[in-house]
Amino acid sequence: MVDTKTPGDKKLSVPSKTLSLKPRVETGTVRQSFSHGRSKQVVVEKRGKRRIDGTPEPQAAEVAKPAPAAPTPAPSRPAPPRNAGSGVVLRTLTEDERSARASALADAKVREVEERRQAEEEAQRRAVREAAERAEREAAESRRKAEEERHRHEDEAKRKAETEAKKRFGEGEQPQSAPRAAVAAPAAATSRPGAPAARTGTATARPGTTTARPGTSTPRPAGGPLGRAPAVAAGPDEDDGPRQIRRGPGGAARPAAAPKTTHKPGPQKERGRLTVVTALNADEVRERSIASFRRRTQRLKGHASNEPKEKLIREVVIPEAITIQELANRMAERAVDVIRMLMKQGAMHKITDVIDADTAQLIAEELGHTVKRVAASDVEEGLFDQVDDSTDTETRSPVVTVMGHVDHGKTSLLDALRHANVVSGEAGGITQHIGAYQVVSPESGKKITFIDTPGHAAFTAMRARGAKVTDIVVLVVAADDGVMPQTVEAINHAKAARVPIIVAINKIDKPDAKPERVRTELLQHEVQVESFGGDVVDVEVSAKNKTNLDKLLEMIALQADILDLKTNSERPAEGTVIEAKLDRGRGPVATVLVQRGTLRVGDIIVAGAEMGRVRALISDQGETVQEAGPSVPVEVLGFNGPPEAGDRLAVVENEARARQVTSYRAHQKRENAAASISGMRGSLEQMMSQLKTAGRKEFPLIIKADVQGSLEAILGSLEKLGTDEVAARILHAGVGGISESDVTLAEGFNAAIIGFSVRANKEAAAAAKRNGIEIRYYNIIYDLVDDVKKAMSGLLAPTLRETMLGNAAILEIFNISKVGKVAGCRVTDGTVERGANVRLIRDNVVVHEGKLSTLKRFKDEVKEVQSGQECGMAFENYHDMRAGDVIECYRVETIQRSL
């Protein structure tokens, strides 16, 4: 420590750090590197050798010696001596330690072998890469040499041409100048011996002349005497040498004096201020600046722009609608040129305007390009209906759709075939959902896929959907009921789908069953059974007693053999969504009938505007399967949202294709919805005129159903209820439970919420109760339609009906003070009541309509006067009554209307 006041004095100070003995162990840190860029820092201890005789360790002694290179060596503390007499016995390794070390050695060997193999593979790859690079370098070198050789030959040919030209143009002067130059050369050489070669006037001192260039031929002597050396300056670069001055006749030509140079031969001295930058960069060669290079490029471009450009002909892809900017970019044309062409056609556009495909095609073809028209629907090409190879097809199970009128026993017949009891679980005892099942034929052992459709009039779309995906239609007709409206509709669906029909006459066990009547009624609809000489198979069955069920299955199998149903099961799957719903625990669930190929877990699927990856496949028995072949109905889990019933399902190769298809379909769906809304509403003037003339009232509703098919049937039924005066306005319709957003929407429009086979969650029910929103639940479509019909009937304006009471003839008019004019009348027919509506008729013309204010019989006020009696009557706010007028008395009744 040094004191600033007396720098010469030094004081002894004790450090504040606590003194302690250092251990004998030396420590350090080492960073270990592992694979994948991992590292770890560990502490390494270095211990000295244990000595038995107690002598100090040699390492400690070496450390204690001062290092010769250090100016101020620091002696280390010697290690404390050990007890010479203490004997230490080293312990042996345990079995666990030995096995751990053995396994570590084995792992090290395996790792070493793996690293050696990787090193060899890397060396092989490096050798292949180096060989390829070497071959590429050699090829490039050969190309460069060939290019240099070509340039050399071109330069040589050019030089020869220039030499010949100079010889041809300088023939007159060459014979005289050659001897003079030859005489002047030795004279100049003798007059100034020792002069540098640059001042002799010969071309040997300048590089780039004829003698300095290799490969040029020596010029011939021109007119000189034999044995005299020719002039050297006869090459094509003669202008580069010093010029000679000719004397008059007889005078010897002497070389022109070279210009005096103020600098010595060598690099030219740089001028300017001496700065640090110039001093450091003195040896560097000055290069062109960036600005100079840019100016040169602009000059070259300017010259090149004057040259005519070659027209580029391109194939222009034109969609259904394209902007002018995008069209110009695809044609590599200027957008102003495209706009100019449109202006010539009489259309004013901006660069961002959208034009149709026909206009774009005209412009592109006028500019000389070829056009390829594409549409947005091209993304669906190759998605469906690919032709199967006939060699890879195999027989598949038939798909049979059971159709018929409501309560004719369709589901009971299927239950008898499947040995199940679906009817007992249906609300109201009627089928309101479409279902798909598989039945194994007891005789042949083959599987038959059945699709059960509802028979209610509201489920027309479901029956049509079932007829489209089927191979055979089984028409169930009750023997005691005959052909009904939905039976006729099912026949029409089957004919539209062009599928064969098998008539199953059910309920033959009933006493009033008449199968012959059913066959006769079917003739009216062009269905001729085999017993009547036709080609339609008919089977009399009883689902209750299970009569002739085996015969029905046999007929179905026979019809399937005639159809020869085959498909390729190894191709990507295609199918149809029969039904879709939103399950709270499983998410969107779609019942799919696979028609072609095999659907597997993990496939990327597209159905309508929804896509997804198959997470699980569930059969009709509730079992989870890994794949579903042709004609197999399964429930598919994994959609992003519930698809529409009737959508076609396809397996695509990747998610990008799936997103492309679904985005196009979603866009089309939005456009169709917007078009329907705009068409329904019309313009503002149309809406106002409609309200003035018709006064149509709307009944707002929010409908939530369990499946898409039921929702579709409900919407169709409610749409049919609408009239010119009142109609149901569906604010929102969806699949799934009633949520809080539905309640909020209903509150904004003061609408009612209808739930079909669904319920509202706890939060939605509380919000509806708090806001006074009515939620109605239904399980049967009959009750839902009837209640909505009654509610819509309440919006209808009531009907006013007149009931004639009687007529009275005015005999005399009396003028009474404080009352006014009173007509003395006699009731000719009917009765006259006080407070009733009256009309005053004069000469068969209605003069006034109003009410009776006074009805008197003699001096008393009475309620009514019978026919043939006289009375006094006065009108409200009307006194122009005359004798001979007729008073017509009537009553107006209000009658409530209904739909």
Folded structure, characterized:
The chain is α+β, with helices and mostly antiparallel strands and 899 residues long. Among the domains are: 315-380, Arc Repressor Mutant, subunit A, CATH 1.10.10; 394-566, P-loop containing nucleotide triphosphate hydrolases (Rossmann fold, 3-Layer(aba) Sandwich), CATH 3.40.50.300; 569-675, Elongation Factor Tu (Ef-tu), domain 3 (Beta Barrel); 696-795, Translation initiation factor IF- 2, domain 3 (Rossmann fold, 3-Layer(aba) Sandwich), CATH 3.40.50; 799-895, Beta Barrel (Elongation Factor Tu (Ef-tu), domain 3), CATH 2.40.30. Helices cover 32% and strands 25% of the residues. The strands form eleven sheets. It has a six-stranded mixed sheet, with helices on both faces. Strand 3 (244-245) and strand 4 form a beta hairpin. Mean pLDDT is 77; it is low at 1-7, 54-86 and 171-267.
